[in-house]
Amino acid sequence: MSDFLSANAGILIALIKVVVVVLVLLTAVAYITWFERKVVAHMQSRWGPERVGPHGLLQPLADGAKFLFKEDPTPAGIDRFVYFLAPFLALSLSLSTIAVIPLGPGQIEIFGRRTWLSVAELNISLLVVFAITALSVYGVALAGWASNSKYPLLGGLRSSAQMLSYELSLTMSVVGIVLLTNTFSLRDIVDDQRGGLLHWFVFPQIVGFACFFISALAETNRVPFDLPEAETELVAGFHTEYASFKFAMFFMAEYAAMVTVSFMVAVLFFGGYFSPFPDTSEFHWTFYLPTAGAVISGVLLLIHGLRYYTAFGRVVLPVIGAALVGLGIVCALPGVIGFVQGPFWLIAKVATVLFVYVWTRGTLPRFRYDQLMGFGWKFLLPLSLANVLITSLIVALRPAQ
Amino acid sequence: MNVETILFFILAAAALGGAVNLIAQTHPIHSALSLIVVMVALAGIYLLLGAELLAAVQIIVYAGAIMVLFVFIIMLLNAGVEERTAISRAATWVGLPFGVILTVVLGWRIAFSQAPAHTGPGVDMVRASRELSQMLFTSYVFPFELTSILILVAILGAVVLAKRDF
Amino acid sequence: MQLEAYAVILSAVLFGLGALGFVFKRNIITIFMSIELMLNAVNLSFVAFSRIRALLEGQVFVFFVIVVAAAEAAVGMAIILQVARNRHSLNIERIDLLKL
């Protein structure tokens, strides 16, 4: 058994990483829908999902079951191959970007082999993310066309034109960071931001950050750029003729793209897996922050759960609270505490960016299509080009190191 | 038979399958999708041959922008299934042997030519992207600037040509 | 044989297939796509030879081929659009005479 493990260690490690990352990503995508509905609801002074499980926590499961059991009509006159290919393409591309994002510092040892904390480690990981983003236009365009119907075709063409236009400023806004760090590798970009809050690239590249975030909102078809899928405008845009599970695939693809972009923002501009505190000895107490967070939230959840108004909630919520407290205590053990810092800070930053995404959705009205295209071509693209010019000027005039 | 060779044969089979499908399919959208498969497979082969930056540029520019243009045009012009006329059937029967002869002759000459020796300085594959970019901006900066003017001219030409006469 | 030699043979076969498509297909857009296939085959042989001879100039030239192919695709699509509007067909047998 152990020689089987050591002989095929490379493939086994890769398989384990892929399975873990994909499972975590799919669960996260499901619960981000819950998160979004609750946050938008509370911003609109209402409750959001409350009935299906305590605080609506089982709502994603109910939605998933609904998607699986719904009737699946296939419209007439469609191009069958392309119709069935489009949601598959959209979902698989959205799920695969996270493979190249570094999730933690340095290497760890599994089965006697040292391996980096990311599913794939490439020299050009930044370009791979943009390559996959470029290919995801096809999911939208082909879905709109294959549905053999007016509204999806219009929605698909508009949506893919929007994605293409904002892809330009998305790529340009990152060139400033590439100029500063001289590398395309995401891990090297994160490693250049070590040393605490003030070394993060969001401060020198604030314009790049603004351009990137706005372009990412448009790339993922989120408010305020979601005209192609707004219900009042185009029925449901390019996914009108898709029902049950195929619609669920588009839905999951959109949220997975949101998660990917949040990871990119955290990695490129907010220091990735480094904590905001410098790595000196007087800040060693910050190593216990994950533990403190988990224990405090676990205790609060325990106390709240014991007084919940349904019996099911009175059982489930305290169990989750106790599990959080246990997790916090495990994170304080000497073997685990170093390992848990990187992923904890990365996930904290990703959660913050996702909250800002959902906050934008609850706050802003949507752009009209011509306003949207004008904003992308006439404002964002020149702004990101100006960012490239000024950054390259500063880099060229810097004293040579 | 190491991993690289196996991976190369898988990607080569995908590229060949896509190319054959491009010719065999009747609807242009299926041909376009097959061409995208060919381009992504070729990008994988570029990675195997050590051209990382080119693999990324191939997918971002070729498969992600040029082919999107093709797909848009096919959608907008509502291109339907190709019709088979008498001329096209005759052309297939007459021309197929010539096509096969062309391919076999090319492949034969290349496969059995003498491999030239390494003449240039060794390419360090870890810094290949950096050296490629430096070469683009130092030795080949003149063609680089010319191609940017070429793209500008192409944009203007496409805008003027595709206008409706109002 | 090494990997690069296999790649050059693959590029020859792809070029031949592109030429076949260019000659046989009747739809202008498919003919254009066969041209792009031929350009891709040539790119592959450039990269393979650049690795065989250990010179980076091959990859530089691939950059330029990709850029020129992009410009050509843009202008070609505009021309095809106008032709399709005037002749109301995408079949080259209907647009090969100056007479309408």
Task: Explain what this protein looks like in three dimensions.
The complex is a heterotrimer of chains A (401), B (166) and C (100). Chain A contains 15 helices and 2 strands. By secondary structure, chain A is mainly α. A two-stranded antiparallel sheet of chain A has the order 1-2. In chain A, helix 4 runs antiparallel to helix 6 and helix 6 (137-146) runs antiparallel to helix 7 (150-181). The mean pLDDT of chain A is 88. The longest helix of chain B has 26 residues, at 86-111. Chain B is built from 6 helices and no strands. Chain B has 166 residues and is mainly alpha-helical. In chain B, 32% of the residues are buried. Chain B has 2 domains: 1-101, NADH-ubiquinone/plastoquinone oxidoreductase chain 6, subunit NuoJ (Four Helix Bundle (Hemerythrin (Met), subunit A)), CATH 1.20.120; 126-166. The mean pLDDT of chain B is 85. The termini of chain B are far apart. Chain C is mainly α and 100 residues long. Chain C is elongated. Chain C starts with a helix and ends in a 13-residue tail after the last helix. The model of chain C has no long low-confidence stretch (mean pLDDT 89). Chains in contact: A-B, B-C. Chains B and C meet through helix 1, helix 2, helix 3, helix 4 and helix 5 of B and helix 1, helix 2 and helix 3 of C.
CA-based gyration radius of chain B? 20 Å
In terms of per-residue confidence, which ranges of chain B show pLDDT below 50 for 5 or more consecutive residues? Answer: none
CATH architecture of chain C: Orthogonal Bundle
* Series of secondary-structure elements of chain C, N-terminal to C-terminal: HHH
Output the CATH homologous superfamily of the largest domain in chain B: NADH-ubiquinone/plastoquinone oxidoreductase chain 6, subunit NuoJ
Q: Helical proportion of chain C?
A: over 70%
Radius of gyration of CA atoms of chain C, rounded to a whole number: 17 Å
Number of extended strands of chain C: 0
Q: What structural class is derived from the secondary structure elements of chain C? A: mainly alpha
Could you give the count of β-strands of chain B?
0
- Please indicate the percent range of residues of chain C in DSSP E strands (runs of 2 or more): under 5%
Number of domains of chain B: 2
Secondary-structure element order of chain B, N to C: HHHHHH
